[in-house]
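Lab channel / #folding
Pinned by the channel admin:
"Please post every new chain as: sequence first, then the structure tokens as a reply. Keep commentary short and put observations after the output so the thread stays searchable."

First post following the new format, from NK:
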Amino acid sequence: MSTTTHDAPVADEAGPEAEETNYLNHETSVWSWLTTKDHKRIGVLYCLSLALVFLAAGVLALLMRAELSGSGETLMGNDTYNQVFTMHGILMVFLFLVPSIPAILGNFVLPLQIGAKDVAFPKLNLASWYVYMVGAILTITALLTGGVDTGWTFYTPYSSTTGGGVL
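Reply from TO:
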């Protein structure tokens, strides 16, 4: 019976070159993220964009709650409160709730669940994120420069009597 041991090569000691490439460590430049066709990376872009919109809408919600914490005008006037309320509603509904389910599930989760290597039209998938970003920037710019102060209702009795930019 022999007591000598032989060292077997360990596969984990191959170094960083042998690390498997995935959507997080493929390339780390901003340009690679903005021109990617990988559905998982586009899903991450949507997650980051939606998180920023959710954060902005949450700040507006905190401003509204702070205004309602005391009697009378505490932080803002009536018109400003209506504009903040409208901005919060538009950001939450049209820029967070509506795009969040199809963007996250359709880009990230669903292709992984069905075992697809990629989506059918990867360039169109990336173009949808760009269209979302352009729409979000235009919406936020319109809300900040002109402001819509209908209080998110847009119902005819109230919206027709306000002095804001509502038809």
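NK: The chain has one domain: 36-152.
TO: also worth noting, Residues 36-152 form one domain.
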